[in-house]
Amino acid sequence: MAYAVNIRRSITNLPLAPYPAHCELAANDHRFNLELATIYANQCLSEYAEVLHAALDLPKHNVQLDAERSGKSPAIALNLNAALDSDYELIIGVDTVSLTGRDETQMFYGVQTLIQLAQSLGPYLPTLEIRDTARCKYRGLHLDVSRHFYPVDNVKRVLDLMAMHKLNHFHWHLVDDQGWRLEIDAFPDLVKTGSHRPGTVTKHTLDRDNELDNTPHRGFYTKQDIRDIVAYAKARHITVIPEIDLPGHSSALLTAYPVLACHNAPTPPRVQTHFGIFTQVLCNRESTFTFLETLFTELAVLFPGPYVHIGGDEVKKTHWDSCPDCQQVLRDRALSNSEALHGYFIQRVTKILANLNKRAICWDDVLDSDNLDQSVKIMSWLGEEKACDALTRGHDVIMTQSKLYFDFYQSLSIDEPFAIHGHAPLKEVYNYDPLEHSDTIQGVQANVWTEYIDTMPKLEYALLPRLAALAEIAWTPKSQQSWTAFRQRIPALLERYEKLGYHAADSVFVPQFNVLDRGTGYLRVALHSEFPQLPIYFTSDGTRPTEGSSAYQQPLLITEPTLLHAGCFSTDNKPASGVVPLFVFPHHAMGCKVVAKDSALNLIEIDHLNQLTNGLPQQGVRFQHAQWALFEALDSFHIDLDLRTTQTFSTISVGFDGALGRSLYFPVSVTVHGSQNEQDWKVLGQLQPSQPTGRWALSSAEHTYRFLRFSVDNRQTIYSFEDARDIIPPLYVDEITVT
């Protein structure tokens, strides 16, 4: 599709991503003609000349190596200069393009800039000077190939995208509970058994109807595949960092070699068909470390880079706590608890890697132990405080926070592909500053987990154009970053991705709802677009908007339950984006105080309780954790409402399901009580389920009360694949309406 956004591309905002540190355009209208150009380079730069030649689609004879320029035809000269002040320098004149790199890596980045200019501006380039230097030393992308396997050609396609955006570290998540993807000669069962699972959960792994597709999923990389990909990455100046996640996320490994598990595990290991955090962990006995030493010795030869990621995240220590071997290690090493045992495990693997001249990288979960070797590089995903803790303790840190999780939704449109959860829109990615807390932070990385990303088009959709935003916050000086300027470049970036055959998301054009204020019996709602020149059309009857729907002009005053849908349209009245919903429901309890209590009526802390009376039921809206109150491991509990004043009402409802993309658990029953004084309670009745909305309601004769209590009976069990046992199901609670 053409991204028909009527924005004039100002030549002062070139269609580049990442944007250069310094860019100065000549005060003239002169142009350099690429179609007539000849590339001149020394033999040592031949591969960069060929990359440029192929991208510009020049005639074969238009590359001259170790040759003097002849004639007056336009020339592109490639040179190295170790004394260059910047990483690379690109000067485009009327008849000469001079590209100079401080070394070959910087030459490669300069070539990428020139290619981007040519792809977006065509054969006639403006005269300009670019002097460019990277902001962050580490600019990374993580790809999970365990949950869903991606063949060699797909991985190379990802590396091409990284190269285009000047990213230089590929974090390759090769193993997890759902599959082992790396051939190791010493342990053939790792791929013979560990690379195969009998099926995959078809919906969200935590849903009540999480059935399997019964389609075997398999795949692994041979050692030759690994060499091929590592070489391909090297040619693009990308370091490959393999991840072998330990000691948790090890179901596939333990299925192949169960002798490495704690022998007290109640169920045998298996390659997991569901997603989550499982109890299967490696045992701390000495034979485990002997196994790992052999494994990493073989792996180290395949990956010449300095780093190996060893995970260390989300380790359930249930088996360790009752494992005789682990408890013996704990006593022998004078370790205080299982957290220290976790640190001991990481310490042992770190030493194995150090003996192989490799440095360990771990997720910041490992900071919970106080016996962590300072040489471990930390990837911080659990919040900014963890990153600051790591810096204080002397660790090198790479920021990879949830705003950079590219498997999250790009917008809340009903048209977005299904995702695990979360919301990481392009603007939030761009506005994130990885160096906010310290200039000593090494860099930044985006993560793509593939539980629900099972095809290359879906993967590209998740990456683009967020990869451009990541590249810019990693490369461009903070003082030069501007969301407004970047936003103006988006149409050109999307056109370039489309021209190159990539499946990019247009989610940035999806409008956003914003509740301006709430009052008695109303909510006032505004619509906003990052592209104000695009008209927004909306409906209030639950249907998709068209060019014939109402045009948004001013905030909407909503006084009754209304399901709104809105979408941006291009200037020729064609849809420019997906459609975003918002369910607005003014009612008596809106904005009132909510408290949660256990079965003994003791107050309990539950996140997001205030969302239960915000007037925005989540029915028909993309599921987002922060919009729901989650009650876990409780077989009964109470939710109390103070309506502020005595209210007369006849209908009460509570949401337990109904969000797009999820099928959540229902309680056994919900009994409603009313009171005038919070002491004397009268039973008003039981809520009745209403399908398919997911709301439970009670309609009766009018009642008059100030206080309401919802007594929830959740005395039921479900089988948890993560815990390998029956558990009380988690209950997500949505808006409580009183009318």
TrEMBL record:
Chemical reaction(s) catalysed: Hydrolysis of terminal non-reducing N-acetyl-D-hexosamine residues in N-acetyl-beta-D-hexosaminides
Residues annotated as catalytic: E314
Gene Ontology CC terms: membrane
Signal peptide: none
Documented EC number(s): 3.2.1.52
Record-level GO BP terms: carbohydrate metabolic process; glycosaminoglycan metabolic process
GH29D-like beta-sandwich domain residues: 524-573
Keywords: Glycosidase, Hydrolase
Molecular function as annotated in GO: beta-N-acetylhexosaminidase activity
Domain Glycoside hydrolase family 20 catalytic: 137-477
Enzyme superclass (EC): hydrolase
One Pfam family here: CHB_HEX_C_1
InterPro entries in UniProt: Beta_hexosaminidase_sua/sub (IPR025705), GH (IPR017853), GH29D-like_dom (IPR059177), Glyco_hydro_20_cat (IPR015883), Hex-like_dom2 (IPR029018), HEX_bac_N (IPR015882)
Beta-hexosaminidase bacterial type N-terminal domain boundaries: 15-132
PANTHER family assigned: BETA-HEXOSAMINIDASE, BETA-N-ACETYLHEXOSAMINIDASE
Family: Belongs to the glycosyl hydrolase 20 family.
Record-given protein name: beta-N-acetylhexosaminidase
